[in-house]
Amino acid sequence: MLDNLKDGLRTAIKKIVSSSGIDEELIKELAKDVQRSLLQSDVNVKLVLEITKNLQERCINETPPPGLSRKDHIVKILYDELSKLLGNDTEFHFKSGKINKVLMLGIQGSGKTTVSSKLAKFLTKQGYRVGAIGADTYRPGALVQLRTNCEKSNVEVYGEENNKDSAEIVKNGLKHFENSNIDVVLIDTAGRHKEEKDLLDEMTEISKVSNPDLALLVIDGTIGQQCFSQAEAFNKIVPVGGIVITKLDSSAKGGGALAASAATGAQVMYVGTGERIDDLEQFSPTRFVGRLLGMGDVQAVLDLAKRLGDEADEVRMKRISSGKMNMEDFFYQLEEVTKVGSLQSLMETMPGLSGMVKEDQLEVMEQRMDKWRYIIQSMNTKEKADPDLLNSSRIKRIARGSGWPEHEVKELIKNYKNSKSMMKASKGRQMQGMLRKLGMG
Known about the structure:
- By secondary structure, the protein is of the alpha/beta class.
- Helix content is 57%, strand content 10%.
- It has 20 helices and eight strands.
- The chain has helices at 3-18, 24-40, 45-61, 70-85, 112-125, 142-151, 166-177, 197-210, 227-237, 254-263, 285-292, 298-311, 314-321, 327-340, 343-349, 359-377, 381-385, 392-402, 406-426, 429-437, and strands at residues 100-105, 130-135, 156-158, 184-189, 214-220, 242-246, 267-272, 280-282.
- Helix 4 packs across helix 11, helix 7 (166-177) packs parallel to helix 8 and helix 18 packs across helix 19 (406-426).
- Its EC number is 3.6.5.4.
- GTP binds at residues 106-113, 188-192, 246-249.
- Keywords: Cytoplasm, GTP-binding, Hydrolase, Nucleotide-binding, Ribonucleoprotein, RNA-binding, Signal recognition particle.
- This is Signal recognition particle 54 kDa protein.
């Protein structure tokens, strides 16, 4: 996704990270590199000049907070400014206990029917009961396409093949779903152009009939900055609550599309990243920028830090960072990782680690961690507090209790000792540095 922008920004960051010292000249060079990357991705010139001016001024004038190096602080400023450029995280939530009506809008060829199917699948996976109404009476095969795609996620589609009155179809469709225990109804409409008055009048009529909770404008990401005028024109007819950008996977103009859409004031809520029905994701500027910069999901790391900070026992953290951890501390760390989710998703969120470990390796690591949790739970209190007590007879007993062979118990002990030795050798410097960055040190 947006490979050119990604490569350009990462190259700019590498210059900062690999430099022996930071001076004003290097900061100006960073601003120019970022400027070039954004312009090549079709971001509006005025926005680019604004963001690079802010970037340069903040990098020169701001003092890094305690525990954060100047290099890290500069990367964080770049992260902040790019996130600001792409708008805010979406705050829209579907309400429970009622049918949430979502009106799908867009010009012809933007991929509206495909997005409706993808969104149906996405919401179904989130636990919502979804229905769809096919109200595109202009394009032959639109209703068939919607039904075929929605079948894959067991979503019922209401449509009337021989009725050309789209507003009436919407009215009948909503009545059909009235008592069907549905949470969300997606209304797929005909593609239209901002100059086509008849179609725009029809859209106004559909909006009156449906009274949507959310109007989603679907825009083709390959048109770049033109997204702004499109979104503005539609917004005058029906207030646009959110934007979906399609074809972001193949577009050199994707940066322009994202920035232009955000500039309209409507939030970019979803992005299409491929052809498959699963290739739709919720858009978050902060998470998206983290991935662009190769920093992983910075916001997720901050969320994790807060959770750990709230729950962490200060004495335990000091013990771990000074290399004096016991098996209970080791178990504590395994439990914290599983609270966050899979190891794979955690690694993807960690700055510097994103993409470095292969998927099959992560699966092996996850399986190993599961074993270790069972093994540690089979130890008694004394053994957890002092793992040096673990002789061959204790290892046999623990193996029997956990259901895993003795060599797995020995593998755990070996890894525990290695971790402890590393902590001791560095006197916790590495851990303390990381904890400080996460706001826990």
